[in-house]
Write a structure and sequence with these properties.
The protein is mainly α. It has 15 helices and two strands.
Length: 412
């Protein structure tokens, strides 16, 4: 049966919900955190620590959210997730004290597991047919503007409203914009799930067709899945550590204001990587795209270490790092689909999200401690070595996949 591709309207609709989701549940927090800390009588570090705890809890529930999307349809799960996100944001806005605020903040990240990329990618796979991979690229290109839009938007709102009132606006955006779009997708994703999902425990082969006697044992599929989780976890750690500390790092390396100028290229480079991949990356296997994305990170870090404090080196680092980050967000959704197929895709993507988010939650604190102990150059060299481990994991996957396909079981 020929499967239709996802309509442009649906992709743009999901793109809008991802911009609002990431903007209200993640990016806006850093702008409002100082005001939150002042009101509750806390140091800013404690407010960000509460966010880290929330991210850990959200990561822990991601595999469960993926299984629910597999079972009931991603559109339906995202609809309820939008309602939960609006309620959690409103809970933050009316929280009378520290404890209730932290509880509501944890609720926002629990809701995030049901509305952000991991579930949106499942919605695309369930409704997008044979062009799902390309639709994921389109979605990441649109959603890549979340920080670009919500950092200044939150700043402007906060100039006229207190942080609680801004959170009420965020809640209304999830309720009045995201919820209707996700509800519209519910029927499509649920119908396609019923039409295209294999029977429970049906084996799924890698995309490349081969003779049945060429398949390797099930343990090889588990090895590849483990390598994938290791690669994504390390990538998440390196990206989170650098992105939180990028501007202070430039200062620690003696670049001053020029480092800030270089850092502004990160966002455009990230979006550019997705745009280039959308145009030219259609024929490239996602396993090798994962290798390229992973390779850009240690390369960029070592360029920075070896050329500091020269501005040219910082510019090259930021561009390479932005390109790697942009591609990593794409392959996070497309690589599991290419390797293991549609069956159980939501559950596998949930594990990918959990691996990334758990490591990312502790990365900023870890790098801060490392910087205090050994300084910026050695810290960056350590991160480059870690990133090289991720590169090795993805390269191993690409080699194993090229040798022969792997048979795996769909999660129950």
């Amino acid at each position: 049966m020929n499967q239709p591709s996802l309509s442009a309207t649906a992709i743009w609709g999901l793109g809008v919900t991802q911009i609002i989701g990431y903007g209200t549940l993640y990016y806006g927090f850093s702008i409002l955190a100082p005001a939150m800390a002042r009101e509750f009588g806390l140091a800013e570090e404690w407010v960000f620590a509460a966010l880290s705890v929330s991210l850990v809890v959200g990561a822990a529930i991601s595999p469960y959210a993926g299984r629910l999307a597999d079972r009931h349809g991603a559109g339906r799960i995202m609809t309820w997730g939008s309602l939960a996100a609006a309620a959690a944001l409103l809970g933050c806005a009316v929280a009378p004290g520290r404890g209730s605020f932290v509880a509501a903040l944890i609720a926002t990240e629990l809701a995030a597991a049901f509305v952000l990329y991991s579930t949106a990618f499942v919605a695309i796979v369930q409704t997008g047919g044979v062009r799902a991979t390309r639709s994921i690229v389109h979605l990441t290109l649109i959603a890549g503007f979340a920080s670009t839009l919500f950092w200044p938007l939150t700043t402007q709102l906060h100039a006229h409203l207190d942080w609680r009132e801004v959170y009420v606006v965020f809640a209304l955006l999830n309720l009045c914009v995201c919820l209707p779009i996700h509800a519209w997708l519910t029927g499509r994703s649920r119908r396609k799930t019923i039409e295209t999902s294999p029977l429970p425990h049906e084996p799924v082969a890698l995309v490349a067709p081969v003779a049945p006697d060429a398949a390797v044992p099930l343990t090889a599929g588990r090895l590849i899945f483990g390598l994938m989780l290791v690669g994504f976890a390390i990538e998440g750690l390196v990206l989170a550590a650098i992105l939180v500390h990028m501007v202070p790092l430039m200062g620690a390396l003696g670049m001053g204001a020029t480092g800030l100028v270089a850092a502004t290229l990160f966002g455009p480079a990230q979006v550019a990587s997705r745009f280039v991949n959308m145009i030219f990356g259609g024929r490239l296997p996602q396993a090798w795209l994962a290798v390229i994305a992973a390779g850009l990170l240690p390369t960029g870090l070592m360029v920075l270490v070896l050329t500091t404090p020269r501005l040219e080196g910082a510019l090259v680092f930021v561009v390479l790092f932005g390109l790697g980050s942009g591609l990593a967000s794409i392959v996070g959704g497309t690589l599991p689909l290419e390797l293991f197929g549609r069956a159980g895709y939501g559950a596998r993507l949930g594990w990918v999200t959990a691996a990334r988010q758990l490591s990312a939650a502790f990365a900023p604190v870890g790098l801060s401690a490392l910087l205090a102990r050994v300084g910026a150059p050695l810290s960056l060299s350590f991160l480059a070595a870690l990133a090289a481990v991720a590169l090795t994991a993805f390269l191993s996957i690409a080699v194993l996949r090229r040798a022969r396909p792997v048979t795996v079981e769909a999660p129950g």
